[in-house]
Task: structure prediction
Amino acid sequence: MPDEAPNRRLATILFADIDGYTRLMRADEEQTLTDLRAHLAELVAPVVERFHGRIVKTVGDGVLVEFASAVEATRSAVELQRGMVERNVGTPVERRQAFRIGLHLGDVIVTDGDVFGDTVNVAARLQALAEPGAIVLSGSVYEQVRDKLPLPFRSLGARTLKNIDRPIPAYRLTATALAETGATPTLSQWLRRRRVMLGAAAFAGGLVVAGGAVFLTERSGFKLDTPSAADGSLTVAVLVFTNQSGDAAQDYFSDGLTEDIIGALGRFKELSVIAYGAVLPFRGKELPLPEIGKALKARYLVSGTVRRIGSRVRVTVQLSDAATSTQLWSEQYDDELSDIFAVQDRIARRVAGTLAANLQQLALQRSLRKPTDNLDAYDLVLRARALILDSTRAGNRQARGLLERSVQLAPGYSDAYAELAETYIQRAMFGWSEFAQADIDTAIRLAQKAIDLDEECVAGHSVLARAYTAIQKYDLGLAESERALKINPSDAEVLLARAAVLLWTGRIDDSIAAAELALRLNVNIGPEAALDLGITYLLARRYTDAVRLLEAMRARYPDHPLLDFPLAAAYAELGRSADALDAAEAGKRKNPHFELPTFGSRFADPALQKRLQDSLRKAGVD
Result:
């Protein structure tokens, strides 16, 4: 039978491969192949068929798929990534596999069932730009889906791709954004980065920023003392509350309510509370309670719904025994929105009382401090946190304005003062002010105000620790970080603040230990924490770890003014001179006022600053 004559047609090409496949094969070839084949047969093939695509071929760990529709191709990519999140739940970290996916729309040549041409090559190159669990589209695909699919793609600009003779506009959808589709943009940024949360990236392969969580958890030397559901321990998981308001933009409210309850319960040392991000993959899934309890190693499960209508909110909560599916307690609350934190107080009291009678003797107000009776002030803080994490000068200024409004509305709201202090530290550290010392002084005053309002304000203690360290009052900084840790030892933000203090005091190994423990609680750290950890890895001569972390964070925060510099230094130490020079030049473009002599001036040990600066000079930074 003669070969099929080649023909041309317009198609959307999806190219996906497994991140870190070589490492996985080196660790266990047979298991890796078995897992990959299962993913292809049980997930990829059914999803592609459902969205009317055609698997052209598989190449090693990669798969090439053709679609007639860009919309269907993108939907398929989304379902593949979400499917991998679900499949990785309960899988040992060292075995988890995560796809990176690229899509491009263009003309292809089809012959004997195979496809060829630049369109295929572009899709493959775009895939290489994706983080584990993420999707990168070309501009041609984006133009087809932008008004049809409510997905928060972010522009990467026109990218120069290997062996492609023209720049290709690219758009990225991160793993974390996929997990939170439907939330309002600024608040979803806070919800995915700020609190104790293992975003979708963790479950798409246990990978923190381009693969880090795998090697972090392997090397950290820490074991979380989370009892299993079978041993009778007081282990509770609060599942993400369902928003029944009919408005997806209100998802942040039910998410925030869930997270606040988790945080409050976590302050009870008698309770082991599962982190917010660990329950995220079960959001909206109607699975048997024993299956969820087993996966989360939780004996008790809390679930609920939130309906926000006008000025009122209705919260329904259930407490169940995961092992037997027995509903132990259920209650419904109707309240004015201004009383939402009183509602949380009652919910926490009932849950804690059911778990252990002796917990009723504790001062619940100490473990569930309501931030304010004014919801508007709370919303202002949420929006400000998102802007702070964006790490831009304009965002810093906007956040400061929101927080000043918040403290005016609710003068007793301690967290608002703590976050306001953070804006002044950020402004001083990034060189956005001519009066850095005055900004640090202001940050100290505001953080102390937060603590005066609530002596157990962990954010206040953590910010104060960083402020003291910035002016080289290391003993005071360590003391404040220890106070925060004592109040809430399960808060990743507390651990990261302590890691920063330990870094600048020269306790490199201790800093890494604290940061890596935080990463096990919260994979999606912010850029400042990643910057500190990248520098710590550099000084610990863990250059490959530094590169993995900083490359991914730079991709997520392309305009950050400092991430390029330690990345350039790590490249230089690995002998990657060209990459080092590129990163150094990128850093100078983003931060033309960068001064090498002052970089690392916070170190208590001048020898550490010299080592850091020597690495930067090797990269071409002067």
Summary: Confidence is low (pLDDT under 50) at residues 182-233, 348-375. Residues 29-50 form the longest helix (22 residues). The radius of gyration is 25 Å. The longest strand covers residues 99-111.
